[in-house]
Structure formats: structure tokens, C-alpha cells
Design a protein that fits this description.
205 residues; alpha/beta; six-stranded parallel beta sheet; 6 strands; disordered N terminus
Length: 205
């Protein structure tokens, strides 16, 4: 039986959103907003470093947004030490996982099959169950170690989607750049409705 979402009237399995302490947490914030606007159920987890970076980049405490996501979208949020969370078991059905932004430490841990926190365990479960996993790595420049870890994951079917601005769409603001990068990541994960028609290349029609 498919896992029921927390939102009334939906039986769609939840998507897992993992947030690390890499720079770029604004992308996580926008991804959660887009999923909420599309009424897609979410289970959210995060690393301790995320809580440190969040106020520096967003301007207010992480807990403020957690409360807002729960209230507006019915999202379920699990801390990094909660290994009793549903996402820690493969028997709990999910629609896949997005890690945004994804630090190189987390890339390394996932590539090595480590499960030192709930985010890493959830990613390990998604891989072993053959479900979609999208990582949005945030680092520059990338060392050979970083590239080798990502190549290892890509060979396992993990989708590596760096946050590349789509300049051909002529974005006018930073918020527009973030929104479009996030929507592209969600489409790769399988949330096709996140990508509006104007963001799709049509060639010479």
C-alpha cells in the first residue's frame, strides 16, 4: 500500500528534502516553497551545519521557517539524530530525495555508504531501494576527490545537478535565477509540474 501523505485527499508518497550546511540554503528554501505550492507532501531533514548557515544567508533562525513549512504545507520535519524517522527505512515508500544544497562532506558520506546522520541514512536508503536521488552540489573549485565521489554516485544512478544559472532565459533578478535553478532540479527528480512551459526549450517552432 502506498504511503499516505499528511495533506488531506492525497495518497502521493512524500519527497524527502535534505538540507546541508553548504552555502546556498536559499535554494532549499525555494525548493520547499515550490513543492508546497504544488501540494506535494514533504519529509524534511537537515544537518547541524545547516542550522548555523541558515541565519547568515536567510536572515532569521532556521526554526522560523520550519514552523512556517509545517503550518503552510503540512511538511514533516525530522532532526539529524532521529533514526526512528520513516525515511530511515526502505519499507517506507517515498518518491525520492533531493539534497539541496549538498556539501562535499555529504557527497563523500553518501558515496561511502555512511549513515552518521538521518540525511545520510535517508540517501543510503533511497539508493539501495532504487529510488530517485538528486544532489545539488555547492563547491568551487572542485577537487579530484570531489569529482571522483560524484562520479561514483553518478554511476549508481544518482543525478548530480549543480546549480547552473540558465542565462538563455534572461533572468532579471537573483530570485529569478534561484527559482529557475530549483525548478530544473525538481524536474530532474521527476516533479515535471515544477517546470513551466516557458522554461522548456522548443527549438525553431
Amino acid at each position: 500500500m502506498a504511503a499516505k501523505s499528511e495533506r488531506p485527499g492525497s495518497t502521493r508518497p512524500p519527497l524527502i528534502v535534505g538540507v546541508t550546511g553548504a552555502s546556498g540554503v536559499v535554494m532549499a528554501c525555494r525548493a520547499i516553497e515550490v513543492l508546497g505550492e504544488l501540494s506535494i507532501p514533504m519529509h524534511i531533514t537537515y544537518t547541524p551545519a545547516c542550522r548555523q548557515v541558515w541565519p547568515d544567508e536567510i536572515g532569521h533562525p532556521f526554526n522560523d521557517d520550519l514552523a512556517d513549512w509545517k503550518r503552510r504545507f503540512g511538511a514533516r520535519v525530522f532532526n539529524s539524530e532521529d533514526f526512528r524517522a520513516p525515511m530511515s527505512s526502505g519499507s517506507f515508500l517515498t518518491a525520492g530525495m533531493l539534497v539541496i544544497p549538498c556539501s562535499m562532506r555529504t557527497v563523500s558520506a553518501i558515496a561511502q555508504g555512511l549513515s552518521s546522520n538521518l540525511l545520510e541514512r535517508a540517501a543510503d536508503v533511497v539508493i539501495k531501494e532504487g529510488r530517485p536521488l538528486v544532489l545539488v552540489p555547492r563547491e568551487a573549485p572542485l577537487s579530484a576527490i570531489h569529482l571522483e565521489n560524484m562520479l561514483k554516485l553518478a554511476r549508481l544512478g544518482v543525478r548530480i545537478v549543480p546549480p547552473m544559472p540558465q542565462f538563455y532565459l534572461r533572468p532579471q533578478t537573483a530570485d529569478e535565477i534561484v527559482d529557475r535553478m530549483v525548478r530544473r532540479c525538481l524536474a530532474v527528480l521527476g516533479v515535471e509540474e515544477a517546470l513551466p512551459p516557458e522554461m522548456r526549450w522548443r527549438g525553431d517552432e
